[in-house]
Design brief:
Length: 465
């Protein structure tokens, strides 16, 4: 347990209905007693009240009344940090919250460092590292998907999967070690094949988690999207509709700039990070808006291309060049200006796309001018990246870079195990790499290798010598 008592404002520092000052640590109740006045004749002592109760009263600093408050009492280990915790709900003005915090600090608490409450929850064993990281992600979540994913991780979904994997691996390490120790009683006859099969299963599982982490990244950070289209196709108009702003200058003269600009938009709960929008926004110069070379570059690190084709004109060589770029990426083709008489129809567009070697590309008729067709666009994006909305529910997404790194390391070790088995190496080779995989996975949960391994080996396999 940490000895000192920490305090911080746990709500945003902006004017609001209420603000919360949180105190955690051994002296939390004692400090609360000193600054709390129940306002009743018989002064109530918070330290004598039962846990998980709320008390009305005032925060006082000596004779000065600071604020009228509700105080929540949570005795450890049944609190967020697993320590004694007091939460003071005061009025939300920045000044009021700050004064309450100052009073708490004056009476013996130390100002908490960023993330220190969560760190304590981890150090006190209430949550694992994947959950601690999820707390940060929940706070930072920018869209519904990201939030749901983080909440799930917070509930321990990642932990469960990783723990199950580790348990399986550990069992085999223990088996190998015991057999090597006691060859008379434990045979390794036919064992490499058996291990090989299990190893394949673990590898697949890690691969699934890695694949999902790509989706996870997209979920939390957004889908990097580039809008392509020949000059005047309606890119800025689309951008305006998506961002809901009139910032772009919509004009018949095309333009370009070297600056790149990213804009985030929320499309039906999914975040699109529109990249290279400067080229679309800046339209003063009489130059092609996004040159082909430039397009190629922005396409390279995009997750999605939105190709805007103009239904009111013929497809030209610009369109053809863009179609070339579509082959490499996930793309949606938007046939714009459908409010006008069609020169280019859906059918002719499909044909040209097919000629260019682009197949399985959806065509969505839209009118950027009349704000039509965007719902369908949003649905298609969701389908494309998350297989519709539902599949999300049974997936575990590892989105954190640190966790992903550990997964990659585990994967490498498991590949190594497979190779050693193939090559007919002695069993102790397997256990070295299995151990590396076990450790790498443990890092996701913030566990360093320790007693659990030792205990496991000897409790399960010791043959009584
Ligand atoms: P960009 O060069 O691709 O960025 O194209 P703009 O967005 O600047 O649009 C070029 C011209 O087409 C402007 O005059 C827009 O008002 C017009 N435009 C864009 N979208 C539509 C649409 O859906 N319908 C019609 N009728 N005009 C549009």
């Amino acid at each position: 347990m940490n000895s000192d008592t920490i305090a911080a404002v746990s709500t945003a520092m902006s004017p609001a209905g209420i603000g919360i000052v949180r105190i955690s640590g051994a002296e939390a109740f004692e400090i609360a007693d000193q600054i709390y006045d129940s306002g009743t004749k018989k002064k109530k002592k918070l330290s004598e009240q039962p846990s998980h109760t709320i008390h009305y009263g005032f925060i006082v600093d000596g004779a000065e009344v600071i604020d009228e408050v509700l105080v929540m009492l949570l005795r450890g280990p049944r609190s967020y940090t697993a320590e004694d915790t007091v939460e003071i709900n005061c009025h939300g003005g920045v000044f009021a919250v700050r004064r309450v915090l100052e009073t708490v600090l004056k009476h013996g608490a130390r100002a908490a460092e960023p993330g220190e409450f969560t760190k304590r929850a981890f150090l006190n064993g209430r949550i694992d590292l994947s959950q601690a990281e999820a707390v940060m992600d929940v706070i930072e979540a920018q869209n519904e998907y990201a939030l749901r994913s983080s909440v799930k991780q917070l509930k321990g979904a990642v932990q469960e999967r990783i723990k199950a994997l580790r348990a399986g691996i550990l069992y085999e390490i223990a088996h190998i070690e015991s057999a090597l120790d006691d060859p008379e009683h434990i045979s390794l006859e036919g064992y490499p094949e058996e291990l090989g099969e299990k190893n394949e299963g673990w590898k697949k599982e890690v691969e699934t988690l890695l694949r999902n982490s790509e989706d996870g990244k997209i979920m939390t950070e957004g889908i990097r999207t580039v809008i392509l289209g020949k000059p005047n196709a309606g890119k800025s108009s689309l951008l305006n509709v998506l961002t809901g702003e009139e910032r772009a200058i919509v004009t018949d003269i095309a333009g370009t700039t070297r600056d790149t600009l990213e804009e985030k938009v929320n499309l039906g709960g999914v975040t699109l990070v529109l990249v290279d929008t400067a080229g679309i926004r800046q339209t003063e110069d009489v130059v092609e808006k996004i040159g082909v070379k430039r397009s190629r570059e922005s396409v390279r690190d995009a997750d999605l291309i939105l190709y805007v084709a103009d239904s009111s004109t013929r497809l030209d060589e610009n369109d053809q060049e863009i179609m070339e770029l579509l082959k490499e990426k996930k793309a949606l083709v938007l046939l714009n200006k459908t409010d006008l008489e069609a020169v280019t129809t859906e059918e002719s567009l499909v044909e040209k796309l097919r000629e260019a070697g682009v197949d399985r590309t959806e065509i969505i008729p839209i009118s950027a001018l009349e704000n039509k067709g965007l719902e369908r666009l949003s649905e298609k994006v969701k389908e494309m990246f998350f297989g519709g909305e539902l599949s999300f529910n049974d997936q575990v997404y590892i989105t954190n870079a640190r966790q992903k790194q550990a997964l990659l390391e585990a994967h490498r070790s498991l590949i190594q195990v497979g190779e050693s088995i193939e090559a007919g190496m002695p069993e102790d080779f397997f256990s070295i790499d299995l151990m590396s995989a076990y450790e790498a996975l443990g890092r996701i949960l913030g566990e360093s290798l320790g007693e659990d391994l030792v205990n496991e080996i000897f409790s399960k396999f010791c043959t009584g010598k």
